[in-house]
Write a structure and sequence with these properties.
The chain is α+β, with helices and mostly antiparallel strands. The chain contains two helices and four strands; from the N terminus they run H-E-H-E-E-E. InterPro entries: Anthracycline_SecMetBiosynth, Glyas_Bleomycin-R_OHBP_Dase, Glyoxalase_6, VOC_core. It comes from Aquisphaera giovannonii.
Length: about 130
């Protein structure tokens, strides 16, 4: 039986797809060419995981906005990314959560979509 081995893409509605794609390119480094609405990620590191989960319809985890989804982005340095977003005027949650498998922070894009940032633990990291 064939099985899903990872997330192939994330797709969501936007009032201005090109402007929002440009925002993600500028503030998060998402690989989208100027003027385009899509980009691709590639990784040779087999140990990198992509999580997929369902949540109850009334979960507060996605924030107070109406969005039916939330994207988790892996980052190398969570603190630096959160500081960069704050400096750009992006709404960033004050809290950061720390677990054995990594650290998490949250922010919101210009259209009210809350997103999660994840700095995974590296092997041997306490």
């Amino acid at each position: 039986m064939e099985q899903v081995v990872g997330i192939g893409g994330v797709f969501f509605k936007a009032r201005d797809p090109k402007a929002l794609a440009a925002w993600y390119r500028e503030h998060l480094g998402v690989p989208v060419e100027p003027g385009q609405t899509y980009g691709t990620f590639s990784s040779a590191a087999a140990e990198e995981l992509t999580a997929w989960s369902t949540f109850p319809a009334d979960t507060p985890y996605f924030g107070p906005g109406p969005s039916p989804f939330m994207v988790n982005y892996r980052v190398r340095d969570l603190d630096a990314m959160l500081a960069q977003l704050r400096a750009a005027g992006v709404p960033v949650d004050d809290r950061v959560e720390d677990y054995g498998f990594g650290r998490f922070g949250w922010a919101t894009d210009p259209e009210g979509n809350r997103f999660e940032l994840w700095e995974p633990r590296t092997p041997g990291q306490a």
